[in-house]
């Protein structure tokens, strides 16, 4: 904001020149000749507490403030848990930040929207071009309607980082086995059989943490779905309706079961954690590892490790790929004035800008935006693999879903039943029935 210095009305006569000059000299002597813009300070919470992450945000704030004199960002770093109850309490008291990272889903962002603690940013999305910068599949995760419908209505956040689940492969292990990088699912399954025959572990897996099995099942399900035909899955995840009794999900579960029967997974995978599995894969103990891009920093030193989308299912040209974003940046109702709201939105827009995206890439992270002309660090070919897949997926609006978003308890049900499936205690059909039972019960609790 700015202040204007108001002088008494002076008639434009020769006799008034001296008083006007005297007034100007007086103002200059008081340091008021050119008044500074009044500072607009915005409090911002984020969860980027790793050194390489916090360096990116600190530099972004420094650059933002240099480009916007008089606008200041008072940053504070918090834990993920702080973005839940503590943030809600702070906003309810009127003392919370104007900008905060907010966890997606009904229990967090949905609850804050319901209590009118977040500010809808549709006008700013139009002003800054977010709806063209980001595909619908990313923005829908941060939309809530006035009736509390997840995935539609007003936009309440924009994320800076992305993630996806795909196929890591060790090129040296494949070369030793005389196997080219598989491009299709039939080629992939032929490679698994050949590796097993040669005594090499085909797929690294650690199921102890639960979510890994769910991610694998989701990956095998969603790679059968064409991006242009995603509405059925979107409706299911966003609780519009539908059923988990799906033939493609049955096929995905059957594939997992078959791979287990054929011995394609690392021996003892049921009792091994995901991070231990990642370390073993990093050290060359298997040819493939189906997991998320959050491991690419760990894998960077091993130049034999590469990343790709899952090998193509016949007949599917642009499949969905399981993934999402990190916590989006939201504007809260403590941004009470138009000036505060404008500064908050301007800051959020800068955090998701091309310049900050390149800083994320340089630091080894995957930005949520997908600029094909981004400068990639020459010393990180694995990141180049990941970014190429990311830009392709988003060009097709093909970012899929973590299936556990469908209900508050779906994660537990999904993880438990994947364990049961691989222990031969339930069939693929029974797995889908149990997931659907959980889903239909939850739909009955929703009231609009």
Automatic annotation (TrEMBL):
<dbReference type="GO" id="GO:0042597">
    <property type="term" value="C:periplasmic space"/>
</dbReference>
<dbReference type="GO" id="GO:0030313">
    <property type="term" value="C:cell envelope"/>
</dbReference>
<dbReference type="Pfam" id="PF01547">
    <property type="entry name" value="SBP_bac_1"/>
</dbReference>
<protein>
    <submittedName>
        <fullName>Extracellular solute-binding protein</fullName>
    </submittedName>
</protein>
<comment type="similarity">
    <text>Belongs to the bacterial solute-binding protein 1 family.</text>
</comment>
<dbReference type="InterPro" id="IPR050490">
    <property type="entry name" value="Bact_solute-bd_prot1"/>
</dbReference>
<dbReference type="InterPro" id="IPR006059">
    <property type="entry name" value="SBP"/>
</dbReference>
């Amino acid at each position: 904001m700015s202040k204007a210095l108001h002088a008494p009305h002076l008639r434009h006569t020769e006799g008034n020149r001296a008083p006007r000059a005297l007034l100007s000299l007086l103002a200059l002597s008081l340091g008021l000749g050119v008044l500074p813009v009044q500072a607009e300070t915005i409090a911002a919470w984020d969860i980027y507490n790793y050194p390489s992450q916090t360096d990116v945000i600190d530099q972004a704030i420094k650059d933002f403030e240099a480009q916007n004199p008089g606008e200041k960002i008072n940053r504070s770093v918090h834990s993920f848990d702080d973005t839940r109850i503590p943030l809600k309490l702070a906003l309810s008291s009127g003392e919370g930040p104007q900008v905060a990272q907010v966890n997606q889903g009904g229990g967090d962002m949905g609850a804050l929207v319901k209590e009118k603690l977040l500010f809808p940013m549709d006008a700013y999305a139009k002003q800054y071009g977010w709806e063209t910068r980001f595909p619908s599949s990313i923005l829908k995760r941060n939309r809530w309607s006035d009736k509390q419908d997840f995935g539609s209505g007003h936009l309440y956040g924009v994320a800076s980082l992305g993630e996806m689940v795909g196929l890591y492969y060790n090129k040296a292990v494949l070369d030793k086995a005389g196997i080219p990088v598989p491009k299709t699912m039939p080629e992939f399954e032929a490679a698994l059989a050949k590796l097993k025959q040669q005594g090499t572990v085909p797929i690294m897996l650690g199921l102890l943490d639960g979510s890994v099995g769910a991610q694998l099942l989701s990956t095998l399900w969603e790679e059968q779905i064409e991006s242009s035909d995603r509405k059925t899955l979107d409706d299911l995840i966003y609780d519009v309706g539908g059923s988990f009794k799906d033939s493609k999900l049955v096929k995905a579960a059957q594939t997992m079961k078959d791979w287990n029967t054929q011995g394609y997974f690392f021996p003892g995978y049921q009792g091994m954690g995901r991070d231990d599995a990642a370390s073993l894969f990093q050290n060359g103990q298997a040819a493939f590892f189906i997991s998320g891009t959050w491991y690419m920093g760990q894998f960077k030193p091993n130049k034999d490790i590469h990343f790709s989308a899952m090998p193509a299912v016949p007949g599917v040209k642009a499949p969905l790929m399981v993934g999402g974003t990190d916590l989006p940046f939201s504007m809260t109702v403590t941004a009470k004035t138009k000036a505060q709201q404008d500064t908050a939105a301007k800051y959020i827009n800068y955090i998701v800008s091309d310049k900050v995206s390149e800083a994320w890439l340089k630091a080894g992270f995957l930005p949520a935006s997908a600029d094909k002309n981004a400068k990639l660090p020459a010393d990180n070919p694995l990141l180049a693999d990941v970014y190429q897949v990311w830009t392709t997926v988003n060009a097709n609006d093909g970012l899929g879903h973590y299936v556990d978003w469908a209900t508050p308890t779906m994660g537990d049900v999904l993880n438990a039943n994947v364990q049961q499936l691989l222990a031969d205690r339930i069939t693929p059909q029974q797995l889908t029935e149990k997931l659907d039972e959980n889903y239909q019960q939850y739909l009955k609790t929703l009231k609009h």
